[in-house]
Each structure stands twice: as C-alpha cells, then as structure tokens.
Design goal:
5-stranded antiparallel sheet, mainly beta
Length: about 120
Amino acid sequence: MPKISAKLAESKPFFPGLVGEITAAEELKTAVSGYNGVRCRIKADDGTEYSEMLWVRGEIGIKSKLGSFMSVFGSDTDLWLHKRVRILRWADKDRDVEEVPARAAAKKAGKETPA
C-alpha cells in the first residue's frame, strides 16, 4: 500500500481562553482552490503552538476569524507579530479577541515583584 505524503499538523486550533504571542501571520493562497488566507500562529505562555487559517473574503464580518483579528490589530499583518492576544470567543460566526499587555520581564523570568 502506498504511503501518504501528507504531514500532520503539529499545532492545535485556537480556543476561548487562549493567551499568547502571535509568532506568525503569513498570507497565502491555497494550491488547489486558490483561496486566500492568513495562517496565524500563537505561542501560548506554556510554549504550546496553536494555529488557524483566517480566510480572506471581499467583505469581512467583525465576528469572523479574520475580522476579529483585524478589528484589534488592523489590516497590516506584519504589525501583528509579537503582539499578545487573548481569545475571548471562538465559535462559528462568533469570534472575539483582545490585545493583552506584554508580560513584564520579571514575570518572564518567573520572578513576581511585590505590589
């Protein structure tokens, strides 16, 4: 029996409550159907990688995958990189995200500073 040459995705899909840094927002066109999209990758605070395709259409709703990101980060995907995001809602036709402040250097090092 011939082997399948496809590769399994190593990242997981987005979900409500996911918080992390946007590590990639790559514009691409699918090979077979020619659909345009943005592959958005988020690295969670625990190091887990997540990714979703955000599909481009002529008019984009604010609650669509792409629209939820564009409403917060704008249309220039180069400016999305290294922004921190929280996925608030991630259901069909009901998606919402928010930008969250960058983690402080002390928190990255695992050292909490007293208030």
